[in-house]
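Subject: Sanity check before I submit

Could someone independently write out the structure tokens for this chain? I want to compare against mine line by line before I put it in a report. The sequence has 177 residues.
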Amino acid sequence: MVERVFVLGIDPGLSRCGYGAVRRVRGGSGSGSGGMRAEAAGILTTAVGDPLPKRLAALARDVRSLIDELRPDVVAVERLLFQANARTAMAVGQASGLVLAAAAEAGCDVVQYSPNEVKQAVTGYGAAPKEQVQRMVQALLGLGARPRPPDTADALALAICHLAAAPLLARASGAAQ
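---
Independent answer below. Compare away.
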């Protein structure tokens, strides 16, 4: 039996919002180990000089368009836990809210993971540096080069994290019913 799971990982940000789409095919073949294959990756940007409402509207349009184009089964979003800079925290929180709403509107399952959960799933170490995350994403997906910028690697890592966690979450959900 072939089981297909397609996850869009999003590392929210107002200036740079990373995205990475990873497909897993059980019983089939994939480029990376474990049958995982990167299908799309990049960043969505907004013009720093534009007023906040215009930037949020542009990001919302771009995220909806991305979800409509890729049609993922699940959208995995990085959960904001703490930011020392209040301005950055607000911008990331606003971007995250847009992503969560757009994914829910599109009918996708939506999950959130903390940065430490993602690093643990991808590298085996919850405090791994960004370069190590990039190298492991490259290795796990069989990419020819490390994904750059880090926002893109983080988004791909979110998708990989969910693919690793999904079987356990499904079993736990079934046991609870």
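---
OP: Matches mine. For the report I'm noting this point. Helices lie at 52-70, 86-105, 115-123, 130-141, 150-176.
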